[in-house]
Amino acid sequence: MVNIWDFANSSIVKLRTIEGNEYKGKVVCVDDAEEDEEVTEDSITIDVKGKYIGFNQSEIEIIEEVK
Question: Model pTM greater than 0.70?
Answer without folding.
Answer: yes
